[in-house]
Amino acid sequence: MEDYKYLFKVVLVGNAGVGKTCLVRKFTQGIFPPGQSATIGVDFMIKTVKVENDKIKLQIWDTAGQERFRSITQSYYRSAHAIVLVYDVACQPSFDCLPEWLGEIESYANRRVLKILVGNKVDKGDEREVPERIGLDFSEVNNFDYFLETSALDATNVDQLFEQVATRLTNDMKATDERFNQYKSDTSTANGTGSIRLIERAQNQFNSCYRSNNRNILSYTVARLCLSLSHSVLVMNTFTIKNAARMASTKTSLYSHARTGGFSQAAPVLHNPYKDDPLLDRVLRRLLPQQQYAKVANDLVRFGDRVVSEIDAMGRKAEVEVPRLEQHDAWGRRVDQLVTCNEWKKLKQVCAEEGIVGIGYEDETDAYTRRLHQVAKLFLFSPSAGLVTCPMAMTDGAIKTLLALDLHGKNALATEAIERLRSRDPATAWTSGQWMTEKKGGSDVGGGCDTYAVHVGDNKYRLHGYKWFSSAIDSDVALTLARVVDPDGTTLEGSRGLSMFLLRIRDDDGNLNGIQMVRLKQKLGTRQLPTAELLLDGALAERIGDQGRGVANISNMLNITRIHNAVASVAGMRRIIALARDYSTRRSVFGQPQAKWPLHTSTLAKMEVETRGCFMLLMESARLLGLSVRLRKLCSFHEVNKKKLSNIRPRCENKLCES
């Protein structure tokens, strides 16, 4: 007599190398086989488990993942009670193949089969490529019965996996048996209409005929035939009802796949943008000194990993959760509270930590190297940054402008702004805005500016005007233009009447500095960036630079922000090509990967050439920007030496000094 109540067939499928054999051996033998070779064809092991005091025998089939064995392993799907689809959480391609495996299951397995999705090798924490959330989403979309992550190495959830399979199958089988037994009971108590009654009547007729003294061959044969038919009816009815009961128990899942369709396209995957770029590393290796290249390359590799694992998700969140403006509190007081999501704030902290702006001004590195380093880092960051690169561009431009005016150490507000704007400490770092556009707009800045500055003492002014398009209003300081009002109340028209001002947006208590946020702009494509119409109603500011030289002074900021704009454009081109290239290896068209079709590869090649050309121009701009700082310092050095030499000449009669 058999020593178990139920026997269930469990089949493990998935790519080669995902750890199916190790899972089976860990469960059945309690060992982890190091250096386990690939399974050839199929293999199986048996283990008995207990489910509520019932012995359940699991026949576990381990199938090969290689393509050449598919025709063999497919035949094992048909009689399986449960199919476990396994992928490696540290191997993205094994996850990307899941739709193909799922298609085989739906083609060859019973519709009522128990389907389990398993992400194996969770012990490889630092090497994980497939987040748990992605696996869970895939299992829910494709109607798996449940999802689990395991590790055969440290036995994480291995026993739980197979015990859960045994429990679910046992409960389903018991439920089916109960329905069948109930049917038999109902049939046996029916009044004259059931198959049991028919058998009893046929049996009585047969016995009567057999005992009769006048029996003949014909009557005996008819009675025997009736008895046989009655048994057949009962068997047929029993078989039909039993199958009907089983189908009824799974009617909700019989066609559930039709709700989402039988196909799920694998999404493109973002890889480390530095390692994945075919050109960036080569350009840096050529342009940078060897000792500096190694330092920069190591930083960019590390940062590229952070972009994939952390920054990209934050950027997406910032794009979805757009800022909002709460102008009044519950008591009707004007507060102009700008509300941005946590991810936007975290991205600004990341910018400080990573030196997205600060790298360009770190004196321990020469200007040439640090500008190339900064632009390369921005290039990796920009497509995932949720547009936080906009305030970073203006922050960079503000530092450049203040340094160009030689205000560091000479003006208290400017000095504090320079130090905080380039700081790597998120607790003290500032960002800057740039307020130029007014209602007239356009490139005629001098003709369009209608903001006025009233002198209040020393170098301080009160600004009055309406700024029509003010980006990154959650910044700490801003540079803006205004017309200085003379003591007699007159102003100078045109660009020569404009001066540049530096102002704090909020005071130390967090109150707006004579500023009202009128409304946020409803933009088309950059809604995650808080841009507003501002009313300057006596905002306290300091004039920096010579009066009437505002346009010339603020052009330093414009030049820097144009380079940042170029970075964003070219980085977006590179990111699109990277995703399109990856997607073409996952998308199957007319029986083969899209990457193998000449028209597609030709289109990508044209895009690649154009992108590389734009990238080379961008890096040349960064190189020249760094050289300009180096040359400016060199010219300043020669100017000082020239003055020193002129002081010496009157006391020197040697004609060689003239040279």
Short description:
By secondary structure, the chain is of the alpha/beta class. The protein has helices spanning about 20-30, 70-75, 90-95, 100-110, 130-140, 160-190, 195-210, 215-250, 250-255, 275, 280-285, 290-320, 340-355, 365-380, 390-405, 410-420, 445-450, 550-585, 600-650; strands at about 5-15, 40-50, 55-65, 80-90, 115-120, 145-150, 325-330, 335-340, 430-435, 450-455, 460-470, 475-485, 500-505, 515-520, 530-545, 590, 590-595.
Describe what this molecule looks like in 3D.
- With 659 residues, this protein is α/β, with parallel strands linked by helices.
- The chain folds into three domains: 6-174, P-loop containing nucleotide triphosphate hydrolases (Rossmann fold, 3-Layer(aba) Sandwich); 192-258; 273-571, Butyryl-CoA Dehydrogenase, subunit A, domain 2.
- It contains 19 helices and 17 strands.
- Strand 10 and strand 11 (460-470) form a beta hairpin.
- Helix 7 packs antiparallel against helix 8 (217-249).
- The chain starts with 5 loop residues before the first strand and ends in an 11-residue tail after the last helix.
- The relative contact order is 0.07.
